């Protein structure tokens, strides 16, 4: 870095410390200024040491760390009354900032709600679609209610009872057939599948059917 760059960096750091008027380490100043001004850490350390040596800023050592801050002699003394007035102003501005922040959060919440809501045109379209869907369901319902081939409760009960009889008989015959087959297979030299193929028996599983549970 050239001498001109060094001078520019030192001037930037001096202006920053005078503006903020609070203690910083060289690392703090580097972190705060590096992105905007592109200052290297080594250049920052050397510039701050030089500024302290020239008496333009003050340096304090706490253990292994050096702290730098603006020369307070360049600032006018502030009266207690002025300090109290500043404290009051700070409190008022803090309260105002908190109120504004809360207002921003409320507005942001309302904006998100409005953004996620349907527009008037979208609502009109959705209502029309729902009305058309309701009309279809109403037509189907009227067709069902006007039909003359309804099954009476007595007929439905009869069908259910017949089904129970047939399912019960299905289970019974399946069990008998299984018992007979197992008895034959005890003296049969081949596998169960080979036996079924030879006698030409198709099982429920071959037909992909299952006995109803009830």
Automatic annotation (TrEMBL):
Alphabetically, the GO molecular function entries are: double-stranded DNA binding; recombinase activator activity
Keyword Acyltransferase belongs to the record: no
Q: Does the keyword Coiled coil apply?
A: yes
Entry keyword set:
Coiled coil, DNA recombination, Meiosis, Nucleus
Q: A biological process (GO) annotation for this entry?
A: meiotic strand invasion involved in reciprocal meiotic recombination
List localization entries.
Nucleus
Q: Which GO terms describe its cellular component?
A: condensed nuclear chromosome; DNA recombinase auxiliary factor complex
Which segments does the entry list as coiled coil?
120-147
Homologous-pairing protein 2 winged helix domain ranges (all copies): 11-70
Q: Which superkingdom is the protein from?
A: Eukaryota
- UniProt xrefs under InterPro entries: Hop2_WH_dom, LZ3wCH, WH-like_DNA-bd_sf
Q: Which Pfam families match?
A: LZ3wCH, WHD_TBPIP
Report the residue ranges that make up the Leucine zipper with capping helix domain in this protein. 151-207
Family statement drawn from the similarity comment of this UniProt entry: Belongs to the HOP2 family.
* Protein name stated in the entry: Homologous-pairing protein 2 homolog
């Amino acid at each position: 870095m050239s001498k001109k760059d060094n001078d520019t960096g030192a001037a930037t750091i001096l202006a920053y410390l005078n503006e903020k008027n609070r203690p910083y380490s060289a690392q703090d100043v580097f972190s705060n200024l590096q992105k905007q001004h592109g200052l290297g850490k080594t250049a920052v350390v050397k510039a701050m040491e030089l500024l302290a040596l020239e008496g333009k800023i003050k340096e304090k050592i706490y253990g292994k760390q050096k702290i730098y801050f603006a020369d307070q002699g360049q600032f006018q003394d502030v009266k207690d009354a002025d300090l109290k007035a500043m404290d009051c102003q700070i409190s008022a501005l803090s309260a105002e900032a908190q109120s504004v922040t809360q207002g921003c959060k409320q507005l942001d919440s309302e904006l998100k709600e409005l953004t996620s809501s349907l527009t008037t045109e979208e609502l009109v379209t959705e209502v029309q679609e729902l009305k058309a869907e309701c009309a279809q369901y109403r037509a189907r319902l009227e067709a069902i209610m006007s039909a003359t081939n309804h099954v009476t409760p007595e007929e439905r009960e009869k069908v259910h009872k017949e089904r129970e009889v047939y399912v019960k008989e299905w289970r019974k015959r399946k069990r008998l057939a299984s018992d007979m087959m197992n008895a034959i297979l005890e003296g049969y030299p081949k596998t169960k599948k080979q036996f079924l193929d030879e006698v030409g028996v198709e099982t429920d599983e071959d037909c992909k059917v299952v006995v109803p549970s009830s």
